[in-house]
Design a protein that fits this description.
By secondary structure, this protein is α+β, with helices and mostly antiparallel strands. It is built from five helices and three strands, in the order αβββαααα. β2 and β3 form a beta hairpin. α2 runs parallel beside α5.
Length: about 150
């Protein structure tokens, strides 16, 4: 089994930050109607603007190993960083996953997210991998709006 498959399995079996926690500034629930995957993401920020810190990302997810692993990778990569970094990481993940395999991903930017690069070749699975990231982005915008 190659390293990337092992990373996906590890994140799906032992997801980082799984379980909804308080305090939180915003929550977003997304569903992938194609396969039935669901995720609820909570975001807790300190500060405001691009320099605000993502203090916590917690989530509850139900779905395939790709969906669960992607949520775990999200929590691992953005927790403790700035909002600006979280947005850049989301954009890098989205670009890689929608590239149809042309963008291998940048490990410096998305860390373990590169393990999901192969998903880009399977359009039906791209939504599974992006589900938690979309919910996170929605919650992030809600949290920022609440802080203004």
């Amino acid at each position: 089994m190659d390293l990337y498959q092992e990373l996906i399995l590890e994140h799906s079996k032992r997801p980082v930050n799984h379980g909804l926690r308080e305090p939180f500034d915003a929550e977003s629930h997304h569903v992938n109607p194609t396969c039935g995957d669901e995720v609820t993401v909570r975001v807790h920020l300190s500060g405001a603007g691009d320099d605000a810190v993502v203090e916590d990302v917690s989530y509850d997810s139900m779905g395939c190993s790709i969906s669960v692993a992607s949520a775990s990778i999200l929590a691992e990569e953005v927790t403790g960083g700035t909002v600006a970094h979280a947005r850049e990481t989301y954009e890098a993940m989205r670009a890689m996953l929608t590239s149809k395999g042309e963008d291998p991903g940048d490990e410096e930017q998305i860390g373990d997210g590169v393990a999901l690069a192969g998903v880009a070749k399977y359009p039906a699975r791209v939504k599974c991998a992006l589900l938690s990231w979309s919910a996170f982005t929605d919650a992030l915008y809600q949290a920022e709006g609440a802080k203004q």
